[in-house]
From TrEMBL:
Source organism per UniProt: Methylobacterium aquaticum
Protein name as annotated: ATP synthase epsilon chain
GO annotations of cellular component type: endomembrane system; plasma membrane; proton-transporting ATP synthase complex
Matching HAMAP family: ATP_synth_epsil_bac
Source species taxonomy: Bacteria, Pseudomonadati, Pseudomonadota, Alphaproteobacteria, Hyphomicrobiales
Residue span(s) of domain ATP synthase F1 complex delta/epsilon subunit N-terminal: 4-83
Family the UniProt entry places it in: Belongs to the ATPase epsilon chain family.
Record GO terms (molecular function): ATP binding; proton-transporting ATP synthase activity, rotational mechanism
Gene name tied to this protein: atpC
CDD domains for the chain: F1-ATPase_delta
Length: 133
């Protein structure tokens, strides 16, 4: 199967760099799967699970919280505002993120911002359930 170069950069470190078969992204306009030969796209990311398929039956999951992705036919680069590999997540980390988002929600009167934060909280709760904490 054809592959493409994928780089995932978080604020503290490079979380992934290598050839992959596919990457599923939590795009701000909806979930999307990037495959080799993808049309050029620049998109923002919402809070959600990024799924890296390295080969059939082998992959990794990373919880991202915002950022953007640059896609072209031969590569994908994700610059994440925050990113944590699933194996590094704990219930306490997700609970702290939910509490921080709830504080932001309470601190704003901007309706659009409140809707955005509600989405982040929902995605974090879904991630917690999906990870069976």
């Amino acid at each position: 199967m054809a592959t493409f170069q994928f780089d995932l950069v978080g604020p503290e470190r490079i979380l992934y760099s290598g050839a992959v078969d596919a990457v599923q992204l939590p795009g701000s306009e909806g979930e999307m799967t990037v495959l080799p030969g993808h049309a050029p796209v620049l998109t923002t990311l919402k809070t959600g699970m990024l799924v890296i398929t390295e080969s059939p039956q082998q992959g990794k999951r990373v919880l991202v919280r915002g950022g953007f992705a640059e896609i072209n036919a031969t590569s994908l680069t994700v610059i994440a505002e925050r990113a944590t590999p699933v194996e590094e997540l704990t219930p306490a980390i997700i609970d702290a993120d939910i509490a921080a988002a709830e504080l932001l929600y309470d601190a704003t009167d901007d309706y659009d911002r409140k809707r955005e934060i509600e989405g982040q909280i929902a995605q974090l709760r879904e991630a917690k359930v999906a990870l069976s904490f």
